[in-house]
Amino acid sequence: RYDQKEILSRDREQSSFPVPGTGVTRGSSATPRGRFIFVDPNTNNELDLTLTNGLSGRPVYNPANPASGGFQDFTGADRFNFSQFNLLLTPSKRTGLFGQVRVELTDNTTWYLKTLYNTRESTNQAAPEPIFVGPGAGTGGLADTISIDRTNPFNPFGFTLDANSNFVFIGRRPIEGGPRIYQQDVDTWYISTGLEGSLDVGNGLFWDLNYVNSENKAEQVFYGSYNIARIARALGPVSQCTAPCVPLDLFGGPGTITPEMLSYIQYVGVDRSANNLEMISANISGDLFDLPAGALAFAAGYEHREQDGFFQPDAVTVSGESNGVPSLPTSGKYDVNEYYAELAIPVLSDTA
Q1: Which residues are bridge partners to 46 per DSSP?
Q2: Which domain holds residue 23?
Q3: H-state helical runs in the chain
Q4: Is the pLDDT of residue 350 over 80?
Q5: pLDDT class for 351, splitting at 50, 70, 90?
Q6: Does residue 351 fall inside a structural domain?
Q7: 91 in a structural domain
Q8: DSSP one-letter string for 307-322
């Protein structure tokens, strides 16, 4: 049994920032204070704003002076240092068992059995999952099409951020939802059995018959992710956000996404996968007879192998409603027949 303890990225100088020696300038544009890129229809100016650090109360947007009222221009110094939450080394518990038995059935025949079992429990952690919405999100999914309606009670701009016209991008890091947690349980087992022996033919032949069966199964449960379809509803017209929908606040800064909002947009996901292998093989080799330059040796064998597997993402991911790239379930199998034959014919001897 092996127990690996965690190491946090922030506990090592070289991993405490996304790129060593660059501070937060290589961090994420999705921050707890938010990044808001849009075109103001009042002035037709494209703006790139964030909230001022330590803002108390609600921001107030002024088209005549956008970088005021709790807003400021976004710069590299406003980026988010996600390394403070990430793990440098993932904690895990691994247990392995191995057994082997060999029994001589006759002077020339042996039966063997080998078994292996391994289980791993691990928990990874990453920074709170960012929420990117708007055409600039670049997810290729629903997030790119989201608009933020002017009737959203937390929209400070007084106009709709329309994905088809004036809306570019919002990046908000909801630290209120906690870090992303990925719990993995992986089980692997293997069994191999067969016969091996020798034949008193020629100068002696060696043979073996083998059967192998193994399986790897994994389940990953992840916490701290978001349902983008629910986010779209919570940012849309308030008249369409009826219970259980809760209007979402992306504009108030750290601490303004409430437990009720999180309860509506967060979900616990489960991914499952498995791979199976089954194989039979037979081999024979040895020296057939002697030639003037040495023994004529040969080897031949056959192997049949069948493999199958599947990956089943969480239902929210399959539906395209996860806050990320959609993924579909997949499965497949194949089988292989392989043969080989070899001869080693000595031609010369004592040529040195």
Answers
A1: 39
A2: 2-344
A3: 228-235, 259-265, 315-318
A4: no
A5: low
A6: no
A7: yes
A8: EEEEEE--HHHHTT-B
Beta carbons of 150 and 238 less than 8 angstroms apart: no
Q: 338 in helix, strand or coil?
A: strand
| 3-class DSSP assignment, residue 240 | helix
Distances (CA, A) of 30 to 21, 34, 76, 99, 322: 21, 6, 12, 51, 17
Phi and psi at residue 91, to the nearest 5°? -70, 140
Instruction: Round to whole Å and give the CA distance between 342 and 204.
Output: 16
Task: Provide the CB-side half-sphere exposure for 45 (13 A, CA).
Answer: 11
Establish if 7 belongs to a structural domain.
yes
In 3D, which of 178, 179, 162 has the Cα closest to residue 170? 162
Separation of alpha carbons 49 and 111, rounded Å: 73
How is residue 222 written in tokens? 């992840």
Q: Which tokens go with 249? A: 């606040």
- Sign of dihedral through CA atoms 254, 87, 144, 38? positive
Report strand pairing: 35-40 vs 167-172: antiparallel
216-266: pLDDT as tens digits: 999 999 999 999 999 999 999 999 999 999 999 999 999 999 999 999 999
CB 240 within 8 A of CB 305: no
How many whole angstroms separate alpha carbon 319 and alpha carbon 328? 8
Q: Do β-strands 266-291 and 2-4 pair in parallel, antiparallel, or remain unpaired?
A: unpaired
Q: For residue 326, what pLDDT band results from cuts at 50, 70 and 90?
A: confident
- Could you tell me if 175 and 130 are in contact, meaning their C-beta atoms sit under 8 angstroms apart? no
Q: How confident is the model at residue 352 (pLDDT cuts 50, 70, 90)?
A: low
| Euclidean distance between CA atoms 187 and 273, whole angstroms | 11
pLDDT of amino acid 145: 96
Percentage of the chain modeled with pLDDT above 90: 87
The answer to whether residue 283 is domain-embedded is: yes
Residue 264 per-residue DSSP state: H
- Say how far apart CA 313 and CA 300 lie, in whole Å: 43
Distance of CA 165 to the CA centre of its chain: 34
Question: Number of folded domains in the chain?
Answer: 1
In which region does residue 198 sit, left (phi positive, over 0), alpha (psi from -120 to 50) or beta (all else)?
beta
